[in-house]
Specification:
This is MFS transporter. By secondary structure, the chain is an all-alpha fold. Helix content is 80%, strand content 0%.
C-alpha cells in the first residue's frame, strides 16, 4: 500500500475539493454539535440541575471562554507536532469531554466538562483552516474554509434539533451520549482521510509566532470577529425561551424551527465563501451590515409566528455568511508568521463573541428591558463589529495607513 499523500501534494488537485477537506468537515460537525446542542436543552438542564435559565446559559459562555483561552495555549503546545496527529489528538480530547458532560452529576461538574471539551475547539478549527487553505488553489481558499465550516452549519441543522428532541424525550444527558458517539466517528474519519504531513514543521519559534499579535490589522480583525459575531449569540443563546415564551411556540415545535436556522446557516456559509473568493472586502463589510439589519428587524416580528420563522432562517444565513470572510481576512493579515496561531485566535474570537453575546443577553433579560429586546441589543453589538471592520479596511489604504497607525500607537 502506498503512503498517504502529503498536505502539500494534496493541494495540487485543483479541479475538485480533496477528501481530506471533507474529513475536516466531519470533525467540525462533531465539534459544532457539542457547541450548539446545549442551546436546545437550556430549559431541561435548568430544571434538572435546579438553576435559572440565565445560569444555564452560562454553560455557553463557559464553553466559549474555554475556546478563547485554550486556543493560543494548545496551538503553541501543538505547533511542532504533525498537523494530522494534532487534529486527531484534539478530537480525542473533544470526545472525552463530551463523555464527562453525559456523566456530570451537578452544574459545577457539567461546567467543568464543557470547558474541557472546549479546549480542543479553537486549535482544531485554527489548524484545520490552515490545512484547508493549503489543499486548494489560492482563489478557492475562502470556499475551502466554508466547506470545512459546513460541518458547523450541518451540526446546527441536525445536531441542535436532534439534541433538543433527545433532551425532550430521554433527558438532556442522552444528547451528550449521542455527541460522544459522533466524536468517536469523527476521530476515526480524520485519522483515515487526512493526509500525513511528516517533515512539515514551522521554522519559527513560539515567540516568533506570537509576534503576529503586534500587527494592528490582525488585532483589528480579531476585534471585528468578537463584536460582529457576538450579536448572533445574544439572540441564539436564548432562542428556545424566545420562541416558547415570546413567540408562543410549543416546546416540541422549537426543534422544527431550529431546522430553518440550520438551513439558513448552510446557505449563508457557502454563499459567504464564494463571494469572499471573488471580492473579500465588499463581502466582509456587506455581510456584517446585513446581519445587523436582520437582527434589528427581528425585534419587530417576534410576536408573529410565521414572520419569526422566516427571520430565524435569515438570521442563520446572515450569521454564517460572515464567517469565511472574517477568517480569511485574519489569515491574510497574518501571512508570513504565526498564521496557525492567528487562525486559532480568530476561532477563539468567534467564541469570545459567543460568550459576550450570551452574557449581554443574560443582562438584558435579568437587569434590562427583557427578553423581547434581545434582537435590538444584538444589532448594536454587530454594528460595533462592522465599525471595527470598516476601520481595518481604511487601514489598507495607503493614504490613511500612516495616520491610522499613528493613532493606534
Amino acid at each position: 500500500m502506498s503512503s498517504p499523500p502529503s498536505i502539500t501534494a494534496a493541494s495540487s488537485s485543483a479541479g475538485r475539493f480533496p477528501p481530506a477537506l471533507y474529513a475536516l468537515t466531519v470533525g467540525s460537525f462533531g465539534i459544532g454539535t457539542t457547541e450548539f446542542v446545549i442551546m436546545g436543552l437550556l430549559l431541561q438542564v435548568a430544571a434538572d440541575l435546579q438553576v435559572s435559565i440565565a445560569t444555564a446559559g452560562l454553560l455557553i459562555s463557559g464553553y466559549a471562554l474555554g475556546v478563547f483561552f485554550g486556543a493560543p495555549l494548545l496551538t503553541a503546545a501543538t505547533a511542532r507536532l504533525p498537523r494530522k496527529f494534532a487534529l486527531v489528538a484534539l478530537m480525542v480530547i473533544f470526545t472525552l469531554g463530551n463523555l464527562a458532560c453525559a456523566l456530570a452529576p451537578n452544574y459545577e461538574l457539567l461546567m467543568l466538562a464543557r470547558v474541557i471539551t472546549s479546549l480542543a475547539h479553537g486549535t482544531f478549527f485554527g489548524v484545520g483552516a490552515v490545512v484547508a487553505t493549503s489543499l486548494v488553489a489560492a482563489d478557492r481558499r475562502a470556499s475551502a474554509i466554508s466547506i470545512m465550516f459546513t460541518g458547523l452549519t450541518v451540526a446546527t441543522l441536525l445536531g441542535v434539533p436532534a439534541g433538543a428532541s433527545l433532551g425532550l424525550h430521554f433527558g438532556w444527558r442522552a444528547s451528550f451520549w449521542a455527541v460522544t458517539a459522533v466524536g468517536v466517528l469523527a476521530t476515526a474519519v480524520i485519522a483515515w482521510w487526512v493526509p500525513a504531513d511528516e517533515g512539515e514543521r514551522p521554522a519559527t519559534s513560539v515567540r516568533e509566532d506570537f509576534k503576529v499579535l503586534a500587527r494592528p490589522q490582525v488585532l483589528l480583525g480579531l476585534l471585528a470577529t468578537v463584536l460582529g459575531f457576538s450579536g448572533v449569540f445574544t439572540v441564539f443563546t436564548y432562542i428556545q425561551p424566545l420562541l416558547t415564551q415570546v413567540t408562543g411556540f410549543a416546546d416540541a415545535t422549537v426543534s422544527l424551527v431550529l431546522l430553518v436556522f440550520g438551513v439558513g446557516m448552510i446557505a449563508g456559509n457557502l454563499l459567504g465563501g464564494r463571494l469572499a473568493d471573488k471580492r473579500l472586502v465588499p463581502t466582509l463589510l456587506g455581510s456584517i451590515a446585513v446581519l445587523a439589519l436582520v437582527l434589528a428587524a427581528m425585534g419587530f416580528v417576534l410576536h408573529t409566528q410565521l414572520a419569526a420563522i422566516i427571520f430565524v432562517g435569515l438570521l442563520g444565513m446572515a450569521a454564517f455568511a460572515i464567517v469565511s470572510p472574517l477568517q480569511l481576512r485574519v489569515l491574510q493579515k497574518a501571512e508570513g508568521v504565526g498564521q496557525s496561531l492567528a487562525s486559532s485566535l480568530n476561532i477563539a474570537a468567534f467564541n469570545l463573541g459567543n460568550a459576550l453575546g450570551a452574557w449581554v443577553g443574560g443582562l438584558v433579560i435579568v437587569h434590562g428591558p427583557g427578553m423581547e429586546a434581545l434582537p435590538w441589543a444584538a444589532a448594536l453589538l454587530t454594528v460595533s463589529g462592522g465599525t471595527v471592520a470598516w476601520l481595518s479596511v481604511r487601514l489598507d489604504r495607503p493614504g490613511t495607513r500612516r495616520g491610522v497607525a499613528s493613532s493606534w500607537a
